[in-house]
Amino acid sequence: MIIVGVDEAGRGPLIGSVVAGAVILPAKFSLPELTDSKKLSEKKRETLYALITQQCQWAVGESSPQEIDEINILQATMLAMRRAVDNLDIKYDQVLVDGNRCPDLERCKAIIKGDLTEPVISAASIIAKVTRDRQMIALDRKYPQYGFAQHKGYGTKVHLAALKQHGAIQGQHRFSFAPIRRA
What we know:
The chain is an alpha/beta fold.
């Protein structure tokens, strides 16, 4: 039975894409450390990311800041999840999604706190989080005055102060989010 785990990262930040990971674990794959990516250190996430990407089938899907602004963060998240599963390009038996709703996919089941209880969703959580964090680190290199490598785009005091001083970045910030509209 082919089960795809799906989770997202980046719903709450004020900048960047929302990223979804989709993972299929091999039959004999076992990593006891798998859990919700937010409960792991950055170093541990990177280690697990390397193992997952080497040993599992995986893909990511994204929705851009422009899509988030056009269709809202919830719909953009569902779109990113569907894209991640579609990018696997495999016939599956079931999709398990972290949360309380499924994207438009056949044979999909939403599991609240699934990233804590289902290893396949935990693996997807790690793929999504590491991918998005790396995007924020790359954006930090381009715009170091905002501190993206530290706060990963969340609405921290540092980020809000940088917005006030430097303004929002076209094509990157989510202009439908209130703090960005105010900036």
